[in-house]
Amino acid sequence: MFSLLFATIGPLVAIASMVDGRRSARRLRRRAATERRQRLDDLAIEVGHRHEHERRSAWRRWPSPRLVLESDDHSAWRDGAPPPIVLGRGAVPSTMRVDGSPVDDADRELLLLATRLDAAPVLADAASGIGFVGELSLARAAARAAVVQLAYHASPQAFTIDGPGRCGDDPWGWMRALPHTDGPGRATMVVIDREVHGAGDRGESARRVGNRGDRGLSGRGAAGSPVPPSILRGDSPIAVVAVAGDAAELPPGLETIVELDGPDIATLRRRGGADDSPLTPFLIGVAEASEWARSARLAAERSGLGGRSRALPQHVRVEELRQPVVAERDRSTLLAAVGLVDDGVLELDLARGGPHALVAGTTGSGKSEFLLAWMVALAAVYPPSLVSFLLVDFKGGAAFEPIRMLPHVTGIVTDLDEAEAERAVSSLRAELRYRETVLARAGARSIAELNHEVDLARLVIVIDEFQAMIERFPDFGAIIGDIAARGRSLGVHLVLASQRPNGVVREQVTANCAMRVSLRVMRRSDSEAVVGSPSAAEIPPDSPGRGVVDRGDGIPVPFQSAIAGPASIAATAAAARGLAPARRPWLDPLPAPLTRAALAALAALIAEPTSPAREWSTLETGEPAVTDDLVIGLLDEPELQRRSPAGWSPRRDGSLLVIGAQGSGRSNALAAVEEASASMFGRGAVLRLEGRRSAIWDALVGAQAAVRDATAPPRLIVVIDDLDTCFRAWPEEYRHAALEMVESLIREGRGQGVSVVASTTHLHGLGAGLRDGFGARLLLRHATRSDLVQSGGRGELWRAADAPGSGQWRDHRVQVVQAAGRIAAAQPAVPELELHPDRLYAIAAAAPRAAAAVVAALGRSPLLLTAGGEAVVRAALAAHPGDAPPVIVGDGEAWAASWGLVAQLREDAALVVHGGAAEYRALVRTRELPPLLDEGARQCWVVEPAAPVRRATWPKRLDD
After folding, report:
1. If both were cysteines, with which of 63, 292, 535, 816 could 67 make a disulfide (CB 3.0 to 4.6 Å apart)?
2. Is 71 part of any known ligand binding site?
């Protein structure tokens, strides 16, 4: 029964399993089909998104004729072959591809959709020829759109557009306004319209167009059509746009033909290409094309690419220009003729159109010649009392050298003199402050309001190669920005020239440079940054002096710069001969060497009421500053535009330390201080420590004693040359003692009128306490910039080639006066040792037997003291209690062993030490240093009862 039951259930289970499997399969197929449709839909959406991005990119790259008409920008002009033009909107092949193999119609439809980009720009190459066929008004409107695009991309300097619109009221008359119609004709684009040209000479014209190659449409254009005169002359056009009512009337050789069936529908046919494709054509009316052509011509004229700009001469001299006539002493204008424009003379006015100018130009463009001509023109119109020039040339200075002799030129700064350039930076700051002070005192808001009695000329600062100057002196950029902001009212004008001003000149400066000049530049961006037009980058290299100028009104105009030749400069200089030179914004560098006579003459000049130093002092305080300083040189103060006496006041400044390398003039500086001190305080007020070291020691000891005893003279100047090395050869104890005495004089002597003036090679060669005691430092030439900074100087004032006496004083450049000679220090003689016959002497000598021989030679009886021989000496002294006592001679050891005898003799005998410190201490028994003996001299110490130690000369032996 169970077997029969299972046999019955088996088929039922199999049938049920088969039914369930079929149901599951149907569900899977439905799910897969749904998922596939969803993925195909997602893929279609992704294709649409990518097509939209591709479409936008295509329209950005190839703008429609409508956008061209609406744009005022003509920066797309180029010299190369014109790019493809946009015929209309239609379907074009897409660059996008979808991988995979189609399995049904939906797949194939999606793949076909991905390969086609709808509503995209339909392009055609004008160089292959384009024909427009249909109702003539529509065909001409479409052809106008093509011609406008050609004119938008093609530079008038490189291409000529030739067409039927030459005279009369014809549909192509608007082309006469294009700047390309009277271009130089290096390459030609032609427009052919059979109805306008007429029927004459059709066959010949058609053959000449057709001979451009094997390109053409089979079976079309057999009859030919007329072409413009350029084709009749045999010229070979690089682009052809033809118009006809029927395709058979088009010339052969056209690659593309557009058949217009209406204003919104046309058919595109290409030779040897795919099937015909529909498109929506772009149409442009005559009025729209005429307006755009006029704006293009105006832009070309402003950029120097129009027909009128090509009429400018290649060369014009300054003397050929008629300069404006300006009222005498008129500070309100700086008008001058500097070149020619299409309608006459180019006149620039920095005072009214500036106040500053930006000039661009690459090498060979004539930039420096333009700047030179501008300055010569200004000098020819205005005297130095109304305009002055500060010329900065960072190409070596040769550009402005021809006009150096003009009285208007206050100075020429070059990159060859770094020190002069740095002085110019400080001087310009002072010039702004000076002009502000003059205007404030006159109650005027600007230089134009000043009375004629006020002597203040406008200052034109011309900087050639501004970029190089900023790279060398970054601080100059802040000064230029300050001048740009305040220069208009103060009468200071900038003319900044650079090969590429874009990115070099700060926005703060360019915002105030309304006047812009661009000669030929290498990049379109540089031209656009300067004059707002790319045309300066399209000036031929063989046209120096040709450029584009914006006179401050925002309208760039082509011009030809004038040239200032030797004759022009000579005539201008002759006319200005006898005129007072312009006031200089700074003085010449300090003279080196500086004599005392020259310093006195300069001091007298400074004291004059019209001198810059007195003028500045009067402007700031009401009266010139008067000091009681010791004048030691001449100080350069570019920030005050003046020179002033360099003075050192012992009372105010304290002791003076002169620091400088070998050959820097340290000794001369000390001599200059001595001369000034002797002149003011008398020769007795100068104490120079020089000569024998014994004399130096005595002078130091005497000066220190005078300070501590308050017996010093009212004014004493102690002069020490080479303080870091003058005591180096002394015994160590004396060296330390001497330095301590110098430090004591510096610190304790100031209150009693004692000052120390010393020199040293290196500041750190002195101890910290000693170098900090000096209140003033005169810094002469140092070996390196870092050495100068470590000495407390300003690194920017360091000069490797400073002349002797040149250096820094109070953070300014100084030239020390050349001293006539040093005051000789007194060198007292050291008396010779005398042995009185009735006096007891105790002699400590390094060589006692030799000393005994000298004593015997002098007629006295020597008695040698040996270690342990004190009893013998005492017996001898007892044997001679009265006259002619013996002279006791011993070495240091003998006297040290006979300490009792030494104590006895110190009260009665004269002690003589002919040796060193060991002998002196053994006999004298004191820690105080005796007077220093001269090295290599026959000197000794003498200590008599109740008397200070004195120095004496050891007698010679009779046989010496």
Report:
1. 63
2. no
